[in-house]
Amino acid sequence: MKNDVMIKFVTVQTTDDNESDTLEINSRGTYKKTDNGYIIEYDEIDEEMKGTKTTIEVESPECVTITRSGSYNSRFIIENGKRHSCHYETPAGSLVMGVFASKVLVGLDDNGGKVRLRYTIDFNSSMVAENTVTLTVKKI
Predict the structure, then answer these.
(1) What pLDDT, on the 0 to 100 scale, is given for residue 49?
(2) What is the Rg, in whole angstroms, of the alpha carbon atoms belonging to the chain?
(3) What global pTM score does this model have?
(4) Where are the domains of the chain?
């Protein structure tokens, strides 16, 4: 059964030149328990990404997969201690980037909770940015 939830994202991105940006977004979405973990879904609210649905699948305490479909198609696998080649598609074209997770902390239960992720993004094995994401889910 899907539950309506409020989702709060706090993302800090630090680029390779030590510039840092913080973004905080609140969105409505759905949350449901699966055999392997939890699925969080929401529609992107950013004007540029309108028409894009994001699905966050918490597959285990060590692995989170983020899939976007619509105007921006992508699939990021964020798995503790591993690097994955991930696909990212925009209206301007598509690319493959490396995603290496140094921290995946999952604190979810049937009522919601938090997911914390720390990962780097690279192109051609050159680090572009480090991201720290805290995702909070609360039933409404």
Answers:
(1) 80
(2) 15
(3) 0.91
(4) 3-139
